[in-house]
Amino acid sequence: MTLRRVLLCVAAAAAMSSVFAQNKPAQNPITTVNEAREVRVSRLTLPASESGAAVFAPCYECAPKSFPASADTKYFLKNAPVSLAEFRAAVLGKPNLGVTVKVSVKTGALVSIGASVAPPATPRRAP
Fold it and tell me: Is residue 111 part of a domain?
């Protein structure tokens, strides 16, 4: 490679870096809407009803906090939507099971709770 070619490459790199340095940061910064936490069932109080609240410590050193549920709160077992009653039936009695709890950053409301367990078997009716 000739000296002239090396100098051209250096000049091009310097010009490109000054162009990138002049660009402003993104106009639409990334905003966190929901936060998800992995919580053991033994450390979680599930809502008793649609208008109840989930109670858990948002971090290991934190005191437990209440997160209000609503009719918009979603419950999932193996990614399948289920009712609160079905969710409770599937996870209660499994204290070491980890569930994913999603909470709204803005409002503190409970958005969803999901677990990687199968829904409880529904009894079949005799024909």
Answer: yes
